[in-house]
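Standup notes, structure subgroup. Blocker cleared on the adenosine-5'-triphosphate input:
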Amino acid sequence: MRTKKQIRQQQIAALQTLAQTPALKHAQEAQLLELLMATEVFQKATIIGVTLSQPIEMATQPIIDAIRLAGKEVVVPKTLPERQMAFYPLTATTELTTGSYGALEPVVTAGSQVLIPDLMIVPGLAFSPEGWRVGFGGGYYDRYLAKYPMPTVALALKPQQRSADWAIDEFDIQLDQVLQV
Ligand SMILES: Nc1nc2c(c(=O)[nH]1)N(C=O)[C@@H](CNc1ccc(C(=O)N[C@@H](CCC(=O)O)C(=O)O)cc1)CN2
Ligand SMILES: Nc1ncnc2c1ncn2[C@@H]1O[C@H](COP(=O)(O)OP(=O)(O)OP(=O)(O)O)[C@@H](O)[C@H]1O
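Run returned:
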């Protein structure tokens, strides 16, 4: 058994290594996007929650493009006090700013409208085949999904695929599907 903290360190190192070989990372991302688009949950969803990725993470811009091309709405998270999140539409006019943790977030203006997705693409550092997950440690997704239950899917690059060798906490939310290449 490992602690989630040990796993975060190992997974970040493994993802940094993959990011040094962009061709390999892109190939895995393209395959994962194909798997996502083939899922029933993707085809049925109308509002899809997705992050704005950081360099070591699965690149989300191709996913965002595919969601739009399919005529669906893209919503992205803004972090709030007390480790809460709200999701806002990502459109051509959405302004973005770098959040405290380094990823981009939408700038909220008078016209901004909070939307609750009907499919969540959940980010993370490690995913087990059964849907257990270790993220960056904020607990944002466990809190959000406890409050707003919805279909969930994760896209696991090779270094993110890991058998659950950590203790599952009672607040951990099990993902419905982990897509793997
Ligand atoms: N691209 C991207 N955006 C995302 C996420 C993500 O995983 N990827 N998130 C996924 O959740 C949310 C932000 N997640 C965060 C996770 C941790 C910390 C943070 O401050 N971590 C502390 C350590 C945590 C602790 O031990 O308490 C730190 O870095 O000091 C901040 C934001 C929303 N946006
Ligand atoms: N539903 C919840 N209500 C209150 N606190 C929660 C809830 N879920 C998680 N937490 C708190 O969040 C903290 C971080 O949880 P965890 O280590 O599982 O984060 P993570 O899933 O890796 O992070 P993230 O979701 O941000 O990627 C835990 O210490 C836990 O106390």
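Discussed briefly. The radius of gyration is 16 Å.
Next: hand off to the docking folks.
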